[in-house]
Amino acid sequence: MSSATLMFGTLVVALLVTMMLTLGRALAGPTLFDRLLAVNSFGTKTVLLIAAAGFLAGRPEFLDIALVYALINFLGTIAVLKYFELPDAGSSTYREDDY
Amino acid sequence: MSDFLLGLVSWPLAGLGCLFVVSGALGLVRMPDLYTRLHAASVTDTGGTLLIAAALLLHAIFTFADPMAAIKLVLIAGFTLFTAPTASHALAKTAMLVGQVPLDADGKPLLDSPEAASRLARSREPVEHGSVGGEEGS
To answer: Of the candidates B11, B63, B75, which has its C-beta nearest A67's C-beta?
Structure first.
C-alpha cells in the first residue's frame, strides 16, 4: 500500500468518525438550531468525504459532486434559517423593515 | 517532486486536518449550549476543510497530475472559506432573534429573557462591554 493510499484511507476513516459524532448531535440536539448546526457541519464533512473517497478510488472526477454538494449545503442552511427568521416572508402583511 | 517529499508535506497537513475535524465534532457533542457548540464547530470546520483540501491538492498536482482536479479543490476550499463563516453568523443571529439566551461559565443565563436576546439581535448598536442584559430592558 502506497503512502498516498494510506493517507486517503486515514482521511476517510477520520471523516466517518466525525460524521457519526455530528449525527449524534443532530439526533440529540435539544433545539432546532443545534440540529441545523450539526446538519450544516455534517454537509461540510460530506464534501470532504466525497473528495477523499474519490482520491482513494483514484478518480478525482468525484470532485464535481463535492463542489455541487458544497453549494447545496450552504443554500439549504441559509434557506431554513431565513424561514425561521422571517416566518411570514411573502405574506400580504410582511414588512421588509420588521427586523 | 519525489514521493518522499510529497508525503513529508501532505501527511502533516492531512493529520492536522483530521485533528481539527475530529476535535470540532467532539466539541459539537460535549459543549454545554448552542453558542459554545457553534464556536467549536464553525472554527474547526473552516480550518479542517482548508488543511484537508491543501493535502488533497498536493496529490492532485503531483500524484494524479490532474489540473482540473486542482482547480476544483481550490474552488471548494475558497467557497468553504466564504460560506462556513456566513452560515455560522446567520445561525447565531437567527438563534438570538428567536430568543435563544446564551449561558455564562456557570450555566446561568446571560440575559434576562428571550425577549432581551431578540432585542439585542435586532438592535444595530454595538454592545458595550458589561452592558449585556440591558439595564433599560430589565
So the answer is: B75
Residues of B numbered 9-48 whose beta carbons fall under 8 angstroms of chain A's beta carbons: which are they?
10-11, 14-15, 17-18, 21-22, 24-26, 28-29, 34, 37-38, 41, 45, 48
Is pLDDT above 80 for A35? yes
CA–CA dist A37, A44 (Å, integer):
11
- Residue A12 is placed in which grid cell? 476517510
What's the pLDDT tens digit per position in B102-113?
Answer: 887 777 887 777
Domain coverage including residue A63:
3-88
CB contact under 8 A, A85 and B55: no
- A27 inside domain: yes
Q: What's this model's pTM, rounded to 2 decimal places?
A: 0.84
The residues spanned by each domain of chain B are: 3-87
Interface contacts A/B by beta carbons within 8 Å: 146
Look over chain B and give the mean of its residue pLDDT values, rounded to a whole number: 84
**What nine digits make up the cell of B117?**
436576546
Q: Is B103 helix (H, G, I), strand (E, B) or coil?
A: strand
Task: Give the pLDDT confidence of B66-115 residue by residue, as tens digits.
Answer: 889 999 999 999 999 999 999 999 898 888 888 888 887 777 887 777 77
How many domains does chain A fold into? 1
Q: How many residues does chain B have?
A: 138
Domain annotation covers residue A95:
no
Higher pLDDT, B128 or B82: B82
Smallest CA–CA distance, residue B64 to chain A, in Å, is 8
Dihedral of CA atoms B53, B59, B62, B64 in degrees, nearest 10, equals -120
* pLDDT mean over A62-84: 89
Find, among B74, B52, B92, the residue nearest to A40 by Cα: B92
Q: Could you tell me if residue A75 is inside a domain?
A: yes
